[in-house]
Design a protein that fits this description.
The structure is a homodimer. Chain A is α/β, with parallel strands linked by helices. Chain A contains ten helices and 13 strands. Chain A folds into two domains: about 10-140, Rossmann fold (3-Layer(aba) Sandwich), CATH 3.40.50; about 140-285, Cytidine Deaminase, domain 2 (3-Layer(aba) Sandwich), CATH 3.40.140.80. Helix content of chain A is about 35%, strand content about 20%.
């Protein structure tokens, strides 16, 4: 799935959705001498943060304009990064370049979110562009193996992590959000499209309401990529917000897939975890 | 798992938790000439509705008192029915009969909720009582096979139902709440300990917030028993509240396991579904 390391000679196109990740990737590229050019998606990409970088504004559906701009900027490699709420068809502005490939986009739309992104990605590949993942473009943003916090998983947490991995393994073929909360061996919550923050909020509520009786400090959030996921487009992400949610849910820690999980801001995340006494650990898969 | 039909000669003990189900079961028994004696769990069983029936008040943990009362009432068969929030250990009043079997209760406590009930059930079986399920005691309360509504599942809904069954099959070994929402082939929500009503509320929110874009009238709630579940203790239940939740979530209908799902009040449920244009269907397993 992973492409080779990006070429030093040509700048890298960063198709930038919402959140902080596009800028973290762009900074990482810059630091390693790969001049990034950002293609900021209107309505989702942060218009203030983008100013620090060479950029163009685009809208979803401007496939023709995109390929022209990428060629003009001499970008051979590109990366899709940042959040992207699945657009309503009515919001999409189609240009002629897009209409030409509409059939293929349409079939991508009808699959899961993964298929949408990988379907669009495939179109660019057919035009000769090379798609990079965070693994290629900014490997320093990935979770390492083992503990990154003062706290570590105890026997109870290790058993919960093992249980969580089993459940995620069973769910993996189904293109579902890949996180679960396991407390003392019980699977108390499974993530759907609502996302990890909402899953953790729910667990906090259930604990407050007495539906979950286990003492605080028991339980683990386990988060892994789906096996159906193209890891270039859609790695799971954790950050200090995940830690805040896990702490509010009374968990002992967070376990994610080492090498296949993006840490939004590692320093902030580790500080938040250490302050709350939570562990954060990267699992070998 | 199912016991034989209850004996006509002796009354049936109904250990009555919260909700309307204990009274529905008691009415069903009465109608078929099995005099029920209710053992109402303090704090959860409805103190008004119980007045219509011969009853005793008990608290969780009064195992010794329970077995004495059951023998005094000549109940050989008994059924556990109604909601029961997992009690905190500190809330349980233990009597000597309970303390004698505490080791076994304690190990039941450490499993999932299913194990708690089936563990306690096993104690009664060891004393010579026979445990009935709703299947034995009140088969008229179970969902039949096929549609019970005017509306029926279309091709789209049938595909969503098939997908839902696959996911529930994969989750079945893990002792997790057994319901999912599938919309146009995407699994958008998985039930954990929060229950079906909360799952449906979440889907309604996600639709309102635009995170789920599919038009209203697409999507299905699929609900089945766990394969690990002892069907005498803990059948999935649906009712008019399920229908209201499914309608608010913009779904087209509800599919449950025929013969293994309790319908809390069939007439109210079907009226609610027909009014909302939803289908309710019993699946053959």
């Amino acid at each position: 799935m992973t492409a080779a390391a990006p070429e030093n000679s040509s700048p890298i196109g960063v198709i930038a959705g919402g959140g902080v990740m596009p800028f973290a990737v762009a900074d990482s590229l810059k630091a390693r001498g790969h001049g990034p050019v950002l293609f900021a998606l209107k309505g989702v990409c942060d218009p203030v943060a983008i100013e620090r970088f060479r950029h163009h504004w685009i809208t979803v559906g401007q496939y023709g304009r995109m390929t022209k701009l990428l060629r003009a900027e001499k970008c051979k490699d590109l990366i899709f990064i940042g959040t992207l709420v699945r657009p309503a068809l009515s919001e999409i502005r189609l240009d002629w370049g897009t209409l030409r490939v509409m059939g293929r986009i349409w079939s991508a739309f009808r699959g899961g979110d993964d298929h949408l992104l990988s379907g669009v990605g495939r179109l660019f590949e057919q035009e000769g562009f090379r798609l990079l993942g965070v693994k290629d473009a900014a490997p320093d943003l990935l979770m390492p193996e083992g503990n990154v916090t003062h706290a570590a998983a105890d026997q109870n947490a290790l058993a919960d992590i093992a249980r969580g991995r089993e459940v995620l393994g069973a769910l993996s073929p189904f293109d579902i959000g890949q996180a679960v909360v396991v407390i003392d061996g019980h699977v108390v919550g499974v993530e759907g499209v609502e996302g990890t923050d909402e899953l953790l909020r729910r667990i906090a509520e259930l604990r407050k309401g007495g539906r979950i009786r286990a003492p605080a400090g028991h339980g683990v959030l386990v988060k892994t990529p789906k096996s159906t996921q193209d890891l270039r487009y859609d790695l799971p992400t954790v950050g200090s917000r995940t830690i805040e949610g896990a702490a509010a849910a009374g968990l002992s820690g967070v376990a994610v897939a080492a090498g296949n999980t993006i840490v939004a801001d590692a320093q902030a995340m580790i500080e938040a975890a250490d302050a709350a006494g939570l562990f954060v650990t990267g699992l070998r898969f």
